[in-house]
Amino acid sequence: MQWADLKADEISGLPKDETIVVVPVASLEHHGPHLPTGVDIVLTSEIARRTAVLTDPHRPVLVTPAVWSGLAEMHMSLGGTITLDLDTLHAVLRSICRSIVRQGFGKVLLLNGHGGNIAALGAITNEIGSTLDIAIATTSYWEHAAERFAAILEDQDTIGHACEGETSMMLALAEGLVDRDKFGQAIGPDNPTVADIAGPAVLRWRSFAARSTVTGTLGNPTRASAGKGERLLDAAAESLSAFLRNDAFWNMSY
Amino acid sequence: MQWADLKADEISGLPKDETIVVVPVASLEHHGPHLPTGVDIVLTSEIARRTAVLTDPHRPVLVTPAVWSGLAEMHMSLGGTITLDLDTLHAVLRSICRSIVRQGFGKVLLLNGHGGNIAALGAITNEIGSTLDIAIATTSYWEHAAERFAAILEDQDTIGHACEGETSMMLALAEGLVDRDKFGQAIGPDNPTVADIAGPAVLRWRSFAARSTVTGTLGNPTRASAGKGERLLDAAAESLSAFLRNDAFWNMSY
Amino acid sequence: MQWADLKADEISGLPKDETIVVVPVASLEHHGPHLPTGVDIVLTSEIARRTAVLTDPHRPVLVTPAVWSGLAEMHMSLGGTITLDLDTLHAVLRSICRSIVRQGFGKVLLLNGHGGNIAALGAITNEIGSTLDIAIATTSYWEHAAERFAAILEDQDTIGHACEGETSMMLALAEGLVDRDKFGQAIGPDNPTVADIAGPAVLRWRSFAARSTVTGTLGNPTRASAGKGERLLDAAAESLSAFLRNDAFWNMSY
Amino acid sequence: MQWADLKADEISGLPKDETIVVVPVASLEHHGPHLPTGVDIVLTSEIARRTAVLTDPHRPVLVTPAVWSGLAEMHMSLGGTITLDLDTLHAVLRSICRSIVRQGFGKVLLLNGHGGNIAALGAITNEIGSTLDIAIATTSYWEHAAERFAAILEDQDTIGHACEGETSMMLALAEGLVDRDKFGQAIGPDNPTVADIAGPAVLRWRSFAARSTVTGTLGNPTRASAGKGERLLDAAAESLSAFLRNDAFWNMSY
Amino acid sequence: MQWADLKADEISGLPKDETIVVVPVASLEHHGPHLPTGVDIVLTSEIARRTAVLTDPHRPVLVTPAVWSGLAEMHMSLGGTITLDLDTLHAVLRSICRSIVRQGFGKVLLLNGHGGNIAALGAITNEIGSTLDIAIATTSYWEHAAERFAAILEDQDTIGHACEGETSMMLALAEGLVDRDKFGQAIGPDNPTVADIAGPAVLRWRSFAARSTVTGTLGNPTRASAGKGERLLDAAAESLSAFLRNDAFWNMSY
Amino acid sequence: MQWADLKADEISGLPKDETIVVVPVASLEHHGPHLPTGVDIVLTSEIARRTAVLTDPHRPVLVTPAVWSGLAEMHMSLGGTITLDLDTLHAVLRSICRSIVRQGFGKVLLLNGHGGNIAALGAITNEIGSTLDIAIATTSYWEHAAERFAAILEDQDTIGHACEGETSMMLALAEGLVDRDKFGQAIGPDNPTVADIAGPAVLRWRSFAARSTVTGTLGNPTRASAGKGERLLDAAAESLSAFLRNDAFWNMSY
């Protein structure tokens, strides 16, 4: 169920202990020469929607509109990007979760759709969870569906940026916004990654302009297809729906 | 043009001095028994979209996704509502406008679609304008199109809340989300207004639960029709498009 | 009654449910070549004082000292001006109102005397009212006494800036601080206003240096007289005193 | 000179390098049964005024209106008190000083008139001085004129609270606001002081309700007289005027 | 080199482009019945020290004192714990890094020694890196030395909490602070973990009192030994020293 | 007792009403050519430790690790210095004290070891004390032991900066970090002090680079000796221990 599509009385009438409120958190940012800046918003919203459709017969799921601007400082120098700072993202999610709690709900998933948000959402989830004393979790859809995604993708193991995976899903959902003629100019990165140079345990500040100087992308969209995209979207929704129906998790002590 | 639908290079390629960036600011809140909570988001986004369509042939207009949560504390006790606090709304709009400026644009309209945001957007517009040194303005669509709206509406002079006007526009855009059977239970307010008691110059803190104890509405949806709604949406867009094409305004010294 | 003139025991002894605390909010700013920078402080304080004198026989009114610095960024470039930023004005009024509430009072009027404060006081009133759960309202004296003022003023309908109205009231209260020789050089504005160009529904950031490049004023002080000023001051106080005695308003549910 | 009494052009015309801007910082708080809550505002403003009168022939001194609310949490439980929190006092003084600097001035004195402000003004002076890179100092009038005051006072060495000294100065300035009949009930404290128990080097949080449970005062007003008050006011002004004329101080490197 | 042990001139004399400043970030928190609350401070400081010793011959490394309080809300209910909130940790690290940059250095490692800090340090590293425009990275010592640690540890693959690993290192460094008699009562957790229930991609707010209700630990200290501890400390230092000497990393564009 | 050396259960087992938690607050800053930057951390920590040793037989004293970065903006231009801003120091101490209170303790001493912190700690002590409603005090060790110190020191009455006193104590504790060859180049100040020019009642913003242009010091280290240092450390601890055992103080109403 979409929060924004329901009458207030319908929301108030939901079983408060059962319902999980899903807050998609995305970003509006440069996505190479071939994809629109709204990719993360489109994908995260759609995955949240499909997840709710799969889950609602078993447990009510209420999806808020997507927080469409996240932490995208890394893309700012490439154009087309809007970013919040960390304190503001924290403040927005705190206000949203506080409102959710005041409406009587106590189970929240911050569903992430943008790599640059991962660390911040982890920190913010802990801060909000302890302050509001609620069952709150966060995950990124491609990390949650990692095995399913690896089985579908051919050129990469997981989602990069404006890559085989994101391009496939956009072809499935909004082909008109995708420019196939630019696929050949959209392959990246052309610089070694932090992991290449320093291994997987190091996180450092690094712009996408430095990671991928020509295209700002991480991946190869020429390997994308609408069919793959449809399978990825469903795989994410299935993975997340199983998670939302995991009573052992949502009833854990905290 | 919708920012989120464009590739980053298309945004970067716009004439920076000419383009006006429109940021719709809405709310997710109780809208009576007959309308969904997302009314302000739907209407403000659609009016911004129509405004851009009318204006783009003359001057590029770039519409960001709607800031979908505003100042809705007044509706919190009625259910279905999410609200930001004043400092958070300020922080969000400051981050968004700062990003817009860093992308090279210098003309911004904060297009308001929720009564509870009016005062805050006035104050925030001044604060952001002087801090970022840009041409920034704010207006509420129903105030900007006040004369056109008065000519279309029959039961009221302007937009109330979940009223003839909002219900008409929702019938035009998303009839499936409107519950006509509840129209008769949706008429409000049942208490005198602040203006009734103290005249038009006084603003006071007052919840909608106090203003309209039964329905939480201000207006009469039984007077609504999809045809009126379509005319209202076009009227708002025409009024705002004329404003965006008003070179004398956008080139004023400030 | 002036809070600062009373002993603490006298304040504590007031009937807490009946008493209204009035907080004048003004500004210290450029007021043309002929008026001192303290105009808004002098006028708002005096109007609050006269309002209390008229009201005290009917209902206790406690007037705090004026918050003498408001949002005057618009005047900064013209000299003689001190301004707060929005967050600071909010913080100051929150501290003051919280103290008032902790002293047992629950009815507050933020009486505004400066145009640049209007939007902010509206937003802050809502924020403080809901947070502290009190009956709090705001109005600007010239808006509250709009009809009375229109009947007295000859050159304008309402208060501008350093105009017929403000100059008249300063002549009545502090003639020694007014420079009549400069009246002829104090007429403004010389640029069209936002309303001239874009109608009444648009608010934009605009400095007074841009509005009125030569004088920084809005109005014509050559039409001022002490007699008019005295009538304006009394009219404001009468209008506001009626408002403070309006039991239906102060006992409204909120 | 009083900032608020000058036209903006007069302020802009002052020699920026020479002029010292004095910002009186006071408090609105319980002052025993015999004195009004505004004592600190009245005294600090008057001492600043007299100081400017003495100094202006030698060096321009510009006195802003008094920041009338300081850190008075210690008096809150006794009634009649309004307090800021530390962050808000910091924010207010930062906004004021930033405005002063933007008007071209670079020498500022935060003239303190309330014991509870001393530590905060020390910390804030350093913070503002380094941030704005200006010559900024703070002193409390009774500490600056300590020797002169000791010579005048009979019952105490320095200013307490609502004591011989403050009562004398109020008798000199606003006898009508002083209640002589309550002098006998206004003697305090009745509890040992922190210094009595732990020596002069310890500062601790302690309310005035704990320090002086019956009267909330520190001192003996029965020893007050208007003549002493007049001498104290002049002594403070003479001491401070010598300080403002101390070129070696105001031209020190920092 | 330890910043605190050097004279200021020695610090100023270091080659600014070469030197890496290491800021250990730890926590003061419950560590089971057998370990002192300062474990993370002791270990992170010592690992930083050993890392610098290994690295200094090749590249100057300057180690600040440890930020000894981190995000330990999860341990608060178990006693002995001090925690910062997220905004405060951000503020502290921002102040420290800003000072480091003002002293001329541009390469910083936030060396983490507490699991609860990981997400926050990731987010803060990005925020500080982009704001100050420096080469800044973060890693947790046990994640960086993951392979080395897995080879040394017998009961677990990596560091838990008050476990084989932490207990071993404390035996090596401060045996007198370790209570061997309590090892048998220190084995945890007794509840399934989030990963057990929901897989590795989910992060949720959860206290250690819920994770490990009896002991508050994650691991088995009976498997600890001082010898293992010494090897772990050296392994961490060797791994990190290789990282600090990785010129390709520290000279990467960002 | 050192908090960090105790197991959590040992801390939880302390008599909550009796125990005093001591939080040393120091600074990491330029200390002349002869002393390391960590002087204030070393001395404050050691004095706190000795104080606890003397006091524990009579009353439990729990010493947290030192807050090692304070307000040292005054030393920044001389190198080797890290500083917090006022708001951050406030936030850190608020988080620490809030955690202390949540662990059940209600008596706190902020033991200061850096002149630049004095004013801020005074203000913060009041703010925290009233907010958390605890018995909290602050003192600087050299001010508390003023008489004892004056009897030991030969060249000065109290502690300056990198002077006879600080150098003596460092010789006693960490002779290897002291460079005796630089003593002759470490004498300061070479400029008159604020007190020289304006008397003791004035506080102003002034960097140490301006106070002591050549050495950044206040005092004469050639008069230092390890023996004096040992006596100073003991004197401070004895003075403070007497204070911590002063039941009349710690049981005062507040």
Automatic annotation (TrEMBL), chains A, B, C, D, E, F:
Gene3D superfamilies: Creatininase (3.40.50.10310). Keywords: Hydrolase, Metal-binding, Zinc. The keyword Membrane does not apply. Pfam families: Creatininase (PF02633). Its cofactor is Zn(2+). InterPro entries: Creatininase-like_sf, Creatininase/forma_Hydrolase. It comes from the Bacteria. The keyword Magnesium does not apply. PANTHER family: 2-AMINO-5-FORMYLAMINO-6-RIBOSYLAMINOPYRIMIDIN-4(3H)-ONE 5'-MONOPHOSPHATE DEFORMYLASE, 3-DEHYDRO-SCYLLO-INOSOSE HYDROLASE. Belongs to the creatininase superfamily. This is Creatininase.
